Amino acid sequence: MERKLRTSQVNIRIPDGILKIIDEDVEKDEFTSRADYIMTAIREFQTRRREMKIAEKTFHESGTLSESDFTGSSKNNIHGEMKLD
Q1: Number of Cβ within a 10 Å radius of residue 21
Q2: Cα gap 11→9, rounded to integer Å
Q3: pTM (2 decimals)?
Q4: H helices within 1-85, ranges in order?
Q5: How many Cα neighbours within 13 Å face the side chain of 74?
Q6: Quick count: other Cβ atoms within 10 Å of Cβ 30?
Q7: How far is the C-alpha of 26 from the C-alpha of 28, rounded, in Å?
Q8: Residues of the chain falling short of pLDDT 50
Q9: I need a labelling partner for 38 at 20 to 30 A (CA). Which of 8, 45, 62, 72 fits?
Q10: Could you tell me if residue 63 is left (phi over 0), alpha (psi between -120 and 50 degrees) or otherwise beta?
């Protein structure tokens, strides 16, 4: 209940093709709902954005980037589960 108190509802328009993909993943039980899918995507975007900002800062400070700066260093998939290599 407390989590609902800390959230806000927003309305967005999503192209039908993207919504179809979301619904297919929800039907496969990969996500519990459309909202779960969208929140997972937003969290993943934020993680990657932070990684890019760190890489940019590293580049500006040292003038070089490593391969991991381009491939990402996250060991989790979009569901927060550990990736298996």
Answers
A1: 13
A2: 7
A3: 0.60
A4: 2-5, 16-27, 34-62, 67-71
A5: 18
A6: 14
A7: 5
A8: 85
A9: 72
A10: left
Longest alpha-carbon distance in the chain:
48
> CA 27 to CA 76: how far, in whole Å?
23
Q: What pLDDT score does 60 carry?
A: 74
* Token pair recorded at residue 50: 């932070």
The one-letter code for the residue type at 76 is N
Packing angle of the helix pair 16-27, 34-62 (nearest 10 deg)? 110
CA–CA separation, 51 and 68 (whole Å): 10
Looking at residue 37, what is its pLDDT? 96
| Structure tokens belonging to residue 25 | 């993943």
Q: Enter the tokens of residue 39.
A: 């929140």
pLDDT at 7: 85
Phi-psi region of 84 (alpha: psi -120 to 50; beta: other; left: phi over 0): beta
